[in-house]
Amino acid sequence: MPEPLTLPVSTAALCRDGDLAEGQALGLPAQQAFIVRHDGVLRAFRDSCPHQPGAPLAWRRDAYLSADGRHIVCHAHGARFDPATGVCTAGAALGLGLTPLALHIDTQGGVHLAEPPSSGD
Ligand code: FES
């Protein structure tokens, strides 16, 4: 899985940690990104399908997941992505991956796009 992109830390919280239940997604149009909760973990990705870079995945607001909430789906051509890794597991983008973005959760539970933690080297 590629390393998360480094982005400027968002100052205002994009949502609260508890806002997204398992299998839910939140679109962030201003950031061209979206957040999903999968296996209890919040993950963020760039809203750009690797099949046609720049094409957003959702067909309507926050519609990034399959009906069962287990896969990220690009509604243009039906590619399915693993929410844990962003890798396409079926469809037009097979073998390609979404771009992961690093998240930071502040002490009040606010969720921010953030720089990845320093590796210490
Ligand atoms: S643009 Fe996403 S599958 Fe084709």
TrEMBL record:
Gene3D superfamilies: Rieske [2Fe-2S] iron-sulphur domain
Domain of life: Bacteria
Limits of the Rieske domain: 12-110
InterPro entries the UniProt entry points to: Rieske_2Fe-2S, Rieske_2Fe-2S_sf
Keywords: 2Fe-2S, Iron, Iron-sulfur, Metal-binding
Pfam families for this protein: Rieske
PANTHER family (alphabetical): PTHR40261, RIESKE DOMAIN-CONTAINING PROTEIN
Record-given protein name: Rieske (2Fe-2S) protein
Originating organism: Pseudaquabacterium rugosum
High-level lineage: Bacteria, Pseudomonadati, Pseudomonadota, Betaproteobacteria, Burkholderiales
